[in-house]
Amino acid sequence: AVNDEELKKRIAEELALERARRDSEAHKRRLKQEQMYARDEFGKLLEQERISSNEHLTRAILRERAATEEERQKAQRFARQLEEKDRELKKHDAYYKEQLARLEERSAQFYKVTTEQYQKAADEVSSRFK
Q1: Alpha-carbon torsion, ordered 52, 55, 56, 59, to 10 deg
Q2: pLDDT in tens, 73-95
Q3: DSSP per residue over 31-78, as a string?
Q4: At CA 48, angle to CA 44 and CA 51, rounded to 5?
Q5: What CA–CA distance (Å, rounded) separates 22 from 44?
Q6: Cα-trace Rg, the chain
Q7: What are the boundaries of the signal sequence (predicted)?
Q8: Predicted local distance difference test score (pLDDT) of residue 129
Q9: Which residues of 69-89 are buried (b: 16+ CB within 10 A; e: fewer)?
Q10: How far is 60 from 67, CA to CA, in rounded Å?
């Protein structure tokens, strides 16, 4: 009877140990599964974040390219306007130089005529009152 009881006790202990071992292994499996799930979810989140980051970066690059192109076109437009203004100023400069030359020529002619008239009048007065 003692042997039976001891045997039953031993069997019960071994069964309890076996059950505890199985529970422990099941717990380890669940833990591993949960870790794998967490790792997968974390990986998915990282991938989504990477994709979002890449999209944001791509949009930023496109915005910068568009802004750069707009600035380039603006600079070209300003350069054309500056060239037009420069041509206009040169045209005005030539026109005013021409006008100045005409005025100087007319002034010289007027001076010549005035001088001749003065000389003529002086000669006339001189000949009258000799």
Answers
A1: -160
A2: 999 999 999 999 999 999 999 99
A3: HHHHHHHHHHHHHHHHHHHHHHHHHHHHHHHHHHHHHHHHHHHHHHHH
A4: 140
A5: 32
A6: 55
A7: none
A8: 82
A9: eeeeeeeeeeeeeeeeeeeee
A10: 10
d(CA 130, CA 123): 10
| 2 has a pLDDT exceeding 80 | no
Would you place residue 70 in the very low, low, confident or very high pLDDT band (cuts 50, 70, 90)?
very high
Tokens of 7: 């045997």
pTM over 0.70: no
Q: Is 129 helix (H, G, I), strand (E, B) or coil?
A: coil
- Structure-token pair, residue 21: 């071992």
Q: Which two tokens stand for residue 44?
A: 């998915």
Give the torsion sign (CA, 16, 22, 28, 30).
negative
SS (H, E, C) 98-114: HHHHHHHHHHHHHHHHH
Is residue 28 helix, strand or coil? helix
